[in-house]
Design a protein that fits this description.
The complex is a heterodimer. By secondary structure, chain A is of the alpha/beta class. Chain A has eight helices and eight strands; from the N terminus they run αβαβαβαβαβααββαβ. An eight-stranded mixed β-sheet of chain A has the order 3-2-1-4-5-8-6-7, sandwiched between helices. The mean pLDDT of chain A is about 90. Chain B has eleven helices and 14 strands. An eight-stranded mixed β-sheet of chain B has the order 1-4-8-5-11-12-13-14, sandwiched between helices. In chain B, helix 4 packs across helix 6. The longest helix of chain B is centred in the middle third of the chain and has 16 residues. The chains are: A alpha/beta, B alpha/beta. Chains A and B meet through helix 3 and strand 3 of A and helix 9, strand 14 and helix 11 of B.
Amino acid sequence: MYKIPAQNFPIIEEWVAPGSRVLDLGCGDGSLLDTLITRKKVDGIGVEISHEMILQCIQKGICVYQADIDKDLSEWADSSFDYVILNSTLQVITRPYSVINEMLRVGDFAIISISNFGYIRNRIRVLSQGKVSSRIRLSESWHDTPVLRFVSLKEFRSSLKEIGVEIIDARYFFPMNMTTRTPGPAYNLLAREGIFKLRRIQ
Amino acid sequence: MSGPSIVRTQILPVDRPFKFESGGILPRIEIAYETYGRLSEHKDNAILIEHALSGDAHAAFYHEGDKKPGWWDCMVGSGKAFDTDRYFVICSNILGGCKGTTGPASINPDTGKPFGLTFPPVSVRDMVEAQRILLKSFQIEKLKCIAGGSMGGMQAMQFFCDYPSQFESFISIASAIKHSAQQIAFNEVGRRAVMADPRWNDGNYYDGIAPEGGLSVARMIGHITYISEKMMQEKFGRLKKDRDSRAIFRPSFEVEHYLDYQGISFVKRFDANSYLYITNAVDNFDLMASISAKERFRGQGRERGMNIGELRSKKGLVISFTSDWLYPSSQSKDIVRLFTALNVQVSYTDIATEHGHDAFLTDYEKPSEIIRGFLASLG
C-alpha cells in the first residue's frame, strides 16, 4: 500500500480554513482527516477504494465513501467542498487532467502533492542503473508499483497553466528537511517533492 | 460454553386507535417483537433492527425446539456485528405483516373474520409508527442505531428522518430511497401471480385453501432477483436432479427444484394478502417526497418531521453489494447523496460479493466488521 506522507499534514493544516468542508481523495486510513477534524474542526469526507482502508476510517469515526477517484467524482455537485485534497496519489491516477478539473469543480481549492521525478537522485538512478522505479518511495518494481505517472515538478507546473489552474501557494521539499515557498532556480533538479494549493484561474 | 440462546416472540397489545397514513383507522393493533441482550441502566444501548419483505420479529437466537435460528442470527448475537453483549437489540414484525403483528390475516373484531382486503393500505411510514409505539413501551428516548436491509433499510431511513432526535445513527444495507420501474415491475408480476390464482378470491380465502400456487410463483420470481446471475450459474448450472423424469414439464433442473422449494416453503409461512400489502408499501415508498410533502403530518405521528434540522451531525452508514442487481449500488449512492444533503455524516461502502441482493442475509463477514467498527465509533 502506498503510504501517505505525514510530512504534508502541517502544511495542509495551515492551508485549510477552520470549519471548512474538505474532501480527501485517496484518504487511506483517514489519519489526515482525523488531524484536520481534531485541529481545524473541518467537515471532512474521505474517498477510498480499498475495503481495509475504509474499515480503518469507519473505526476512527471518519466519514468515508468507497469510490474510484478516476471515475466517480462526477457524483458530487459543483462547489460541494471548500478544499479537495489529493495527497501523494496523483501518480496513481489514470486520468490526472480530468481528476484535477473535477477537483476544482466539486471544490473551490485543490491541494495536490507530488513527488518529483526530475529530482537528481531519480535522474542518476535512471542514468546509472537504467532503473525507472525507486525502491524508496515507489514500489519494488515496475510491474507492481501503483505509480502510473512519472512527472517532474516542472512538467506539473506547466500543465497547470495549460488547464487554466493557478498556484496560490506551494511548498518545495529539498533534502535535509529544507522547505521553501518559491521554487528557486534549480528546483526541478533538487526538490524531492512539492505540494500545491490550487485554484481555477478566475 | 452455554447452549444456544433461546428467545420467545412477545406481543405488545395497543388498545387505542391506530391511524394509517391512508386515512384508515384500526381500533387496536398488536405488535410482535423480540429483544436480545440487556437494556442498560441509562437505556442508551438500544438498537432497532428492521426486517425485509418476508422477515419477522425473530431476527436472532433460537425459538424453543427449533433447529434454525432467526433470519439475521449471523449478524445479531454475542460478538457479532450487532453485539448483544454490548447492545440491547429490538426487532418487531411490521404492521401489515403476518407473523404476529396485526395484518390482513388478523381477525377484525367488528366482524369476527380476517380483515382481508378491508385492511387499510399500509405505508412504510405506518410500519415505522407502529414501532414507535413499541419503543415508547420500553421508555427508550434515544437509540444508538436503527438498521435494516432492503425494505428494512427503507424503514430505518424513514424512522430516522421522521424522528431524528430518537436516533444517533442509521444503517442502510442494499436499500433505496425509492423503487425503480424495474423493482416495481417485478413486484407487480408477483402481485399478479397471487391475484390470478382463483383461490385468492379477492382476498377472501381464509376459510379455504390459500392462493398457494400464485404466492409461490411470486416468491420464485423474487428468488431469481435475489441472487446474481453468476451465482445462480455456479450453484445450479444445467444440473438435473431426476434424469428420468416421467412426466413432461415436471421440474427436473436443479434450479427449478430450488425455486420450487423456495416457493413452497414460503407459502407455508406467509400470507398472500400480506404479500400484496407489503409489496405495495415498498413500491410506493419515496423517502424524499415523504419528508418534504405537506401530507407528512397525516396518520399516526403528529410530532413527525418537526426537527429535520436535528439530522445535522448524525451518522449514517450505507452498504451496497457489487452483484446486487435488484437494489443496485447506484441506489445506495442516491441514499448517500440525499443524507449528505441533509447534513448527515454518511459513510458508504460497496462490498465485493457474488451473492447478489441476498448478500445482506448470507455474506455477512465484511459487512459485520464494517458495522462493528461503525457502532464502536459512536462511543
